[in-house]
Amino acid sequence: MKIAVLPGDGIGPEVTAQALKVLDVFAREGMALEFEHALIGGCAYDATGHPLPGATLALARDADAILFGAEGGFQYETLPRGLRPGDALLTVRRELDLFANFRPVVAWPELVGASPLKAARLDGLDLLILRELTGDLYFGEPRGVHMENGVRVGINTMRYDENEIRRIAHVAFRTARARRHRVCSVDKANVLESMELWREIVDEVAREYPDVTLEHLYVDAAAMSLLRTPQHFDVIVTGNLFGDILSDEASMLTGSIGMLPSASMGDGKKGLYEPVHGCAPDIAGRDLANPLASILSAAMMLRMSFDQHEAAARVERAVRRVLASGYRTADIAEPGTKRIGTAQMGDLVVAALA
Ligand code: IPM
Ligand code: MG
């Protein structure tokens, strides 16, 4: 199994290093894991003049799985489009056709106090945001800024074709079958034609899964329900932009965005695994970042790309044990817990794996 390791910028390298420590435990136990590193994002731009060098894209294509850290940084925000770090990640997702983004949101009982929500709202919370990742406003044409009658106009296009909707809907229903058999499709069909089509196709696909309950919510109502009745949700399927926004909102249910892993899949077993959080330049290099989202992303890799279900469960149990022992990075620290840094959190998870 070849893993492309793309740590990227900011806290990306330090959290990815912890996930690699964890994967290394399995390599030492005999799992055939092979790691190859490459540059992506701002560091790649600095080194080569492009955030996604050809060699990095080639490695990502060739690998069985990709472990990605984060990318970006203040100094890159004014670069022309196409050269910004975020564009590299979008290109990898699109070029590899990784259209299905899994963002599980689980309330760890040890962390309910770290969430701004009342504990009673979080008990047993276990939902999955399934975000379509290669369409929508992110990629729709036309786009850009141009002059119209002497004024500048900015344009982006919300675009989905029926096949794109159909394939993500199938993933949603198949995934729900392995969970609690409920799908909530989130759209804005009351205002947007593209979302009216979304709803129509999701309804059509639903007829093939009579054992799965489907409901539809408009995105504004979904944003509210995520805070009001989060335990109600099982699989939430939605488009690229709404999924981006709702997954950051949902992260606060878990106490910190530093706890949220993700997997981006195509039709096969190959996946890109990354923490949902960004590069956090304000805390980069200071041993402050929470590596658990990256470690839990590695667990998703073991499960979804390599079919190593027991290994994945072992990682999740190890994380659980470390949290239960009271160890916390800054983002999830509470009075009475033990504050530790990024590297020590990685070491403790490795120790708990044994
Ligand atoms: C995410 C991020 C990315 C996105 C950015 C970095 C381009 O916010 O993965 O959620 O918008 O998809
Ligand atoms: Mg986001």
UniProtKB/TrEMBL annotation:
Subcellular location field: Cytoplasm
Any Gene Ontology biological process: L-leucine biosynthetic process
EC identifiers of the protein: 1.1.1.85
Cellular-component GO terms for this entry: cytosol
Chief location of this protein within or outside the cell: cytoplasm
Metabolic or biological pathway, per its Swiss-Prot or TrEMBL entry: Amino-acid biosynthesis; L-leucine biosynthesis; L-leucine from 3-methyl-2-oxobutanoate: step 3/4
UniProt-annotated site: Important for catalysis, residues: 138, 188
Cofactor section: Mg(2+); Mn(2+)
Domain of life from the UniProt record: Bacteria
List of residues binding substrate: 93, 103, 131, 220
Keywords: Amino-acid biosynthesis, Branched-chain amino acid biosynthesis, Cytoplasm, Leucine biosynthesis, Magnesium, Manganese, Metal-binding, NAD, Oxidoreductase
Entry note: cofactor: Binds 1 Mg(2+) or Mn(2+) ion per subunit.
Coiled-coil blocks: none
Residues bound to Mg(2+): 220, 244, 248
Gene Ontology terms for molecular function: 3-isopropylmalate dehydrogenase activity; magnesium ion binding; NAD binding
UniProt-listed SUPFAM superfamilies: Isocitrate/Isopropylmalate dehydrogenase-like
Catalysed reactions, semicolon-separated: (2R,3S)-3-isopropylmalate + NAD(+) = 4-methyl-2-oxopentanoate + CO2 + NADH
Stretches assigned to the Isopropylmalate dehydrogenase-like domain: 2-349
Enzyme class label: oxidoreductase
Subunit structure: Homodimer.
Family: Belongs to the isocitrate and isopropylmalate dehydrogenases family. LeuB type 1 subfamily.
Function as written in the Swiss-Prot or TrEMBL entry: Catalyzes the oxidation of 3-carboxy-2-hydroxy-4-methylpentanoate (3-isopropylmalate) to 3-carboxy-4-methyl-2-oxopentanoate. The product decarboxylates to 4-methyl-2 oxopentanoate.
Name of the protein described by the UniProt record: 3-isopropylmalate dehydrogenase
Species annotation: Caballeronia pedi
